[in-house]
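User: Continuing from earlier, I have the next pair ready.

Assistant: Great, send them over.

User: Here they are, in order.

Assistant: Folding the first of the pair now:
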Amino acid sequence: MSAVIVFTEGDPWFINSRNWSVILERIMVAVQPADRDSFDWFLNETGLDFPSVEPVGRSSVARLVLSVVEQLQVELSIKAEWDAVASGPYYGDLVSKLRNEINVNSGDESALDG
């Protein structure tokens, strides 16, 4: 099974559920416990749906996910079932898409505590 990240603009990005669970776990550690339930409707074991995030919060969510992915990028590439060197650009594509999501929603002044 896989998970998918659906972006506000552009193509979706797919990841195997094992690696997504690592990312999701790290994201939830960074989110305040009181806020975790509010994430369930757009961020869960099946992926992340940016269009379901309130527009004023999309950039903050993208920044949070980007931070986690940047921290885990090398670790996830090494754990990948395929060549770690080849998987680097794959996660690099996710980093680019997350940065684009931040730029698309750059009017967002809010920041998540984490």
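And the other member of the pair:
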Amino acid sequence: MIEFGYFCLDGTTYGFVLYDGGDEGELTHYSRQGLDRRWDWGENGQYSFVITPDGNGRYYDFTNVPAGEFTKPSGIYKAYKR
């Protein structure tokens, strides 16, 4: 299980991703784009996870994608609110 979330501290919003259902993970850049929620992390935002209003989560790995080019999601998941 992978968990995504966000929190506010002193007026700044931070995102996070937790791996393997545990308490280890990464701080991320969190944003809301229209109705979508998005988390970006890694060197130069090489990983992204986007949750759309239909409850689908799409994972993107931009590691080998040239700048300015598009890619399909590496995985599509059903997202649940906790």
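Worth noting for the second one:
The beta strands are 3-9, 12-18, 25-33, 36-41, 47-51, 56-61, 75-78. The mean pLDDT is 93.
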